[in-house]
Amino acid sequence: EVQLVESGGGLVQAGGSLRLSCAASGFTFDDYAISWFRQAPGKEREGVSCFSDGRTDYADSVKGRFAISSDNAKNTVYLQMNSLKPEDTAVYYCAAVAVFGRVCPSNWRSYDYWGQGTQVTVSS
After folding, report:
1. Which of 94, 81, 80 is nearest to 33 (CA)?
2. How far is CA 36 from the centre of its chain?
3. Is residue 74 over pLDDT 80?
4. What three-state secondary structure class fits 9?
């Protein structure tokens, strides 16, 4: 059974940092794209970052501030978030989808597996 479990969210002041973790079970990363999405109240779910066989993608709004990485031994993907802004406040989800090659689907509807989400709140 595929499971994704996020952790690491919380409340932080603007300019601070958080590291989110997405622990996966039931599959290995080799053939999957793992992405982080976020959704703020009243807004559409948006892609934040993706990791796929070494390829990394970022939304323009987080480039230079967020970094995605993978620890295959732990079957965990991390999202290091620095220089956080109030507009980063959202529920953050990790999601996975089987892919061929180094592909990062941008549409959240392409993903088959989702974690429960973790709240990130950035105060001004």
Report:
1. 94
2. 2
3. yes
4. coil
C-alpha to C-alpha distance for 15 and 24, rounded to whole angstroms: 29
Q: How far apart are CA 94 and CA 113, in angstroms?
A: 8
Residue 57 CB: number of other CB atoms within 10 A?
19
Residue 109, SS3 per DSSP? helix
Token pair, residue 4, equals 């994704």
Q: pLDDT tens digits, residue range 38-54?
A: 999 999 999 999 999 99
> What is the residue-averaged pLDDT of the chain?
95
The percentage of residues in the chain with a pLDDT greater than 70, rounded to a whole number, is 100
Burial group, residue 7, by CB count within 10 angstroms (0-12, 13-18, 19+): middle
Q: Percent helix, strand, coil in the chain (nearest 5)? A: 5, 50, 40
Q: The tokens of 100 are what?
A: 């061929």
Q: Are strands 18-25 and 10-13 parallel, antiparallel or unpaired?
A: unpaired
Beta-strand ranges (E) seen in 1-124 are 3-7, 10-13, 18-25, 32-39, 46-52, 55-58, 66-71, 76-81, 90-98, 113-114, 118-123
